[in-house]
Amino acid sequence: xxxxxxxxxxxxxxxxxxxxxxxxALNLPTNNSISVTLSQDDLRTLTTASCSPDFTQxxxxxxxxxxxxxxxxxxxxxxxxxxxxxxMEDSDSSLPKLADQKLKxxxxxxxxxxxxxxxxxxxxxxxxxxxxxxxxxxxTPEQLSIVARQGSGSACRSLYGGYxxxxxxxxxxxxxxRAVQIATADHWPEMRAAILVVSADKKDTSxxxxxxxxxxxxxxxxxxxxxxxxxxxxQMKKSILDRDFPTFAELTxxxxxxxxxxxxxxxxxxxxxxxxxxxxxxxxxxINKAAGATIAAYTFDAGPNCVIYYEDKNExxxxxxxxAILGRVEGWEKHQSVDAKKIDVDERxxxxxxxxIQRVILxxxxxxxxxxxxxxxxxxxxxKNSK
Amino acid sequence: xxxxxxxxxxxxxxxxxxxxxxxxALNLPTNNSISVTLSQDDLRTLTTASCSPDFTQxxxxxxxxxxxxxxxxxxxxxxxxxxxxxxMEDSDSSLPKLADQKLKxxxxxxxxxxxxxxxxxxxxxxxxxxxxxxxxxxxTPEQLSIVARQGSGSACRSLYGGYxxxxxxxxxxxxxxRAVQIATADHWPEMRAAILVVSADKKDTSxxxxxxxxxxxxxxxxxxxxxxxxxxxxQMKKSILDRDFPTFAELTxxxxxxxxxxxxxxxxxxxxxxxxxxxxxxxxxxINKAAGATIAAYTFDAGPNCVIYYEDKNExxxxxxxxAILGRVEGWEKHQSVDAKKIDVDERxxxxxxxxIQRVILxxxxxxxxxxxxxxxxxxxxxKNSK
Lengths: 387, 387
Prior knowledge:
Distance between the termini of chain A: 25 Å
CATH architecture of the largest domain in chain A: 2-Layer Sandwich
Number of domains of chain A: 2
CATH topology of the largest domain in chain A: Ribosomal Protein S5, domain 2
Largest sheet of chain A: 6 strands, mixed
Number of strands of chain A: 16
Oligomer: homodimer
Structural class of chain A: alpha+beta
Shape of chain A: globular
CATH class of the largest domain in chain A: Alpha Beta
Helix content of chain A: 25-40%
């Protein structure tokens, strides 16, 4: 007999970047960060967590492939979740004894890993949420975010929909380093995101390694975390609460640039932006110029893909300009009605973009993780056929 | 009847970068900088300065093309040089009255402008030196550097051979913002430079514009000029005096990276490095890894070309590795004897470099500007046929 519970969890894309840990073991960051949670209609991880007295070992399956469960981050998450369940079982002896059973977790993304989107945030958020559901934990998303953070820093922000802050905290044990919701998706539902997925580009440096190289070698990094980010954090929060897109957009672009600047100031230097990323930036600038206002904002995580935030009312302008350049790539299916509309942009940026982007993902701000009846595990504990 | 004098002047490539003016009109920089002067055998500007009572206007000819002489930088240089000559003529009435005659300046580079090398430094240095020779000015190179600085900031460093510092000074009139020689070329004659010239890439932003965008918009820039550069300046000077290549090299690479990081932290961001530049950096890192020591240093000015400094004793290793990738491009004529020697480097960097570099220029540290009998102006004041 097995117990099981399933959830989906969203991807989030930071607008104020997390880069640098003050405590690598606990994933405690050097600065606050902010992100927008994206719609699970387009990008989500589906995870089923199960446990059974018959299971003989903890197991984790990602996209049909069994993964190692001995990594210290996963071990920490399992340990913390079991501790919370133990506490419940200790205080109510009528509860089934699940905490000591082995766990089998099965997880699938609805987007290709090849898209180069950081899937670890959605993955760990879904895992934490699914096990919390399985264990019927009463902890709030904020409390669970402290567990998720230990799996993957930015995962803590995927426990909420909408607009989310990760407050770095000050405690050395990490007990106050957690995600809080700045606003729900409904507060500012007009937010859209267009992701330009760059054709194969091997990742330069893993973000886990890269951020610590920056912490230890960039002379400019300290200035960023001590002086620049605290001010930006307050300004960006306010711009979200005010639904002030131009301010939100400029802060987002400046912060992406500065994060990549500290990568370049690292030694040896770290590069995530390539010539296609640079072209994406110039095209977004051209869109804003054509509009005579800041209606689109680029941001880049630890890779060359460009995420462009914009508001629904400017969809024709933003997507029209992108379609004029990228109309032939995959991803326009749901936006057939948008007319390509050529804007004034340097020919070299246009061709760099046209040649370098393999697909677009068009999505929007989205909600919290969602419990689902869809399961990836059969009643007998075996895996359902993965798609 | 005309008076004339000719000189050659060298190119210099900064190892501690000049980026940012505290006074744009006077070209007063926000920080000290350091450069290596390159050999005039390979890269030089030849300039003839002449004056005659018959000339009716000031004229400037660059590479066979007449240039505008009303630009305020050129006007400032002419004014300062004439003031110095006036002082001489006022104190010695036997001297010919040259200061009030119109000037005709003719200048030619021995390297293609298309090479994308900053030619304004050598150009203004040669102009100042040629007119100073014509006027028989007794000012030292240090004093003339104050005039050259007003033409083009980095030109002040091209009035000396060897290893040169531009001390930013503190006076508001710029009277102490000048070049001083840290060491002659003979102090460390083993220094070599390989310039990897990138195939056509339109310049992103002019350096004159770009540096002021950085000054006004990069939150990290102030930290660079107030904290990082002062320390680096002292360390780099010492590494030159000690002929300590590994230290000199690491400081050079870190400073190039940081300069470009502040460009990226500007708003809108400025990009001079492209994917070919990035590949150049990775190849230099691979050379150092293969050598098990820091034997080569990359540096980039406001463009994608890579300048690699190394010492003569490592020529086989450094040029051998470059020849294995770039053996087919122009520029190896004087280095036929170097054997291509493949090092371990990621295939994508290798092909990015092989496809993106159009020629190499192989040179070394060189000396001061040199008076020459070679003239670009006939006795009757007409221009000699340019090559």
